[in-house]
Write a structure and sequence with these properties.
This protein has 369 residues and is an all-alpha fold. The protein has 2 domains: 99 residues, no CATH class; 186 residues, no CATH class. The protein is built from 16 helices and no strands. Helix 8 packs parallel to helix 15, helix 9 crosses helix 10 and helix 15 runs antiparallel to helix 16. The longest helix is centred in the C-terminal third of the chain and has 33 residues. The two termini are 51 Å apart.
Length: 369
C-alpha cells in the first residue's frame, strides 16, 4: 500500500476554513495530527496486506482525527489544553481511535444489501430535486411561528422526504415507511394550513401555545396557568371531558374549520379527512403498525415496503412541490427562479414517468405467482 501524500500547510488551512474549524484550535497541532494519522494508516495497511480495503479517503480520516481531538479538548480547561497537546500518549490515542473508526465505519460497516443501488435513477433524481429545494428554502426566514409557520412546516416536509430517500438508499425499507408516516402527517397539516390560511393558521398557533403549556415548556408559570384555564373553558363549551385534553390540544384547532360533527379529535377522522388524504388511511394504518413494533415490522417483506415508501413519497412530493412552486418560488431572486425553472423543465416529467413505472412494479409484485 503506497504512503499517502499529505496536504501542504496552505491547502490544509484552506480546508480547515471550509470545514469551519474554530480558529481557537491550534492549527499547527491539527496539522500534526493530519500527518501522523496518514502515516499511521499507511503503516497499518502495510502490516495487513490481506485486508479488503483498496481505497482510502485521507481527508475523511483527518476529519475523524479533528473531531476526536476537538471533543476531548472542549472538555478540558483552557489552561490545560497546551499540556494535553504535548502528551504523545494522547496524540497516539486520538490517532488510533480515528483510524479504527474510519476503517470500521467507512469501510467495514455491516449493512443489509439495499433493494436498489444508491445510483438507481428514481432515487437519485428525486433526491437531486429535493436537495435543490432544501437549498432554496434555506434562504427563507424560519423558526418564528407567528410569521414563518408555513415555511417551517414546508421545510420539515422536504427534510423528512430526504430522510425517507436516505433510508431507502441505505437498505432500511421499514424505517423509511415509518418515516413516510410522519411525512404524511406533516403534509396533511401543511395542506390544511395552506388552503385555509386566514382561519387555520391563527387556530393552529393558538393550539401550539396550548401544547407548550401542556408539556410545561413555558417558563412563566402564571402564563401557563392562565392558558390551562382557557383550555378548560373551551373544553367545557364543547362538552369535552378532562381525559380528552391531550386530543383537544393536538386536534382542537380543526373545530375552527369544520363543525364538530364533521371531524373528530384524531388524525384519521380529523386532519387526514380535512386535508382530503383519506385514500391513504390504510397505508397510514399499516405504517402505524410498523412504528409501534408489531410483527409486521419484524417479518415484513422488504420489497413491498420499499415500493410503498418510494411510491407514496413520490405522491407526497408532487403535492408539496406544488406548494413550494406557488408560494416560495415567486419570492426567490431571479437567478434562483431561473435555476429552479431549468430543473423543473428537465426533471419533473422524468419524475412523473418514474412514478408510473414504479407503481406498475408494485402491482406486479402484488400479483399471485
Amino acid at each position: 500500500m503506497p504512503k499517502f501524500e499529505p496536504l501542504n500547510m496552505e491547502k490544509f488551512q484552506e480546508l480547515l476554513a471550509s470545514w469551519k474549524i474554530p480558529s481557537h484550535y491550534d492549527y499547527q497541532y491539527l496539522y500534526h495530527l493530519h500527518l501522523e494519522a496518514l502515516a499511521g494508516l499507511g503503516d497499518f495497511l502495510d502490516a495487513h496486506p490481506a485486508n479488503p480495503i483498496r481505497y482510502v479517503n485521507p481527508i475523511m480520516l483527518t476529519l475523524y482525527c479533528f473531531h476526536e481531538h476537538m471533543y476531548f479538548a472542549s472538555k478540558t480547561r483552557e489552561e490545560l489544553r497546551e499540556k494535553l497537546q504535548q502528551d504523545e500518549e494522547y496524540a497516539t490515542r486520538i490517532i488510533s481511535a480515528a483510524i479504527d473508526k474510519y476503517l470500521t465505519n467507512e469501510h467495514l460497516e455491516y449493512r443489509e444489501e439495499a433493494i436498489k443501488s444508491r445510483y438507481y435513477p428514481p432515487l437519485t433524481t428525486l433526491k437531486l430535486y429535493v436537495n435543490t429545494i432544501n437549498g432554496l428554502l434555506s434562504g427563507f426566514q424560519s423558526r418564528q411561528p407567528q410569521e414563518t409557520l408555513l415555511t417551517d412546516i414546508t421545510k420539515k416536509c422536504f427534510s423528512l422526504l430526504t430522510c425517507v430517500l436516505d433510508l431507502l438508499i441505505s437498505g432500511f425499507e421499514t424505517e423509511a415507511f415509518s418515516t413516510w408516516r410522519t411525512l404524511h402527517e406533516s403534509e396533511a397539516i401543511l395542506t390544511i394550513l395552506y388552503r385555509d390560511q386566514p382561519k387555520a393558521i391563527p387556530a393552529y398557533l393558538k393550539h401550539l401555545q396550548y401544547g407548550l403549556a401542556f408539556h410545561h415548556l413555558i417558563e412563566d408559570k402564571t402564563k401557563t396557568d392562565a392558558i390551562f384555564e382557557v383550555i378548560k373553558t373551551e373544553m367545557r363549551t364543547r362538552d369535552l371531558k378532562s381525559k380528552d385534553m391531550k386530543k383537544f390540544i393536538e386536534y382542537g384547532w380543526l373545530f375552527q374549520l369544520a363543525d364538530e360533527g364533521e371531524v373528530r379529535l384524531n388524525f384519521r377522522d380529523g386532519i387526514q379527512k380535512l386535508a382530503g388524504l383519506s385514500n391513504y388511511s390504510k397505508a397510514y394504518e399499516m405504517s402505524s403498525e410498523i412504528t409501534h413494533s408489531s410483527p409486521l415490522l419484524i417479518y415484513s417483506k422488504r420489497q413491498t415496503f420499499y415500493d410503498l415508501s418510494l411510491i407514496y413519497s413520490y405522491e407526497t412530493f408532487f403535492r408539496i412541490e406544488k406548494v413550494f412552486n406557488q408560494t416560495f418560488v415567486p419570492h426567490l431572486k431571479k437567478e434562483a427562479q431561473a435555476q429552479y425553472a431549468g430543473l423543473r423543465q428537465v426533471y419533473y416529467s422524468q419524475l412523473i414517468q418514474f412514478h408510473k413505472i414504479e407503481s406498475g412494479t408494485l402491482l406486479a409484485h402484488k400479483k399471485p405467482k
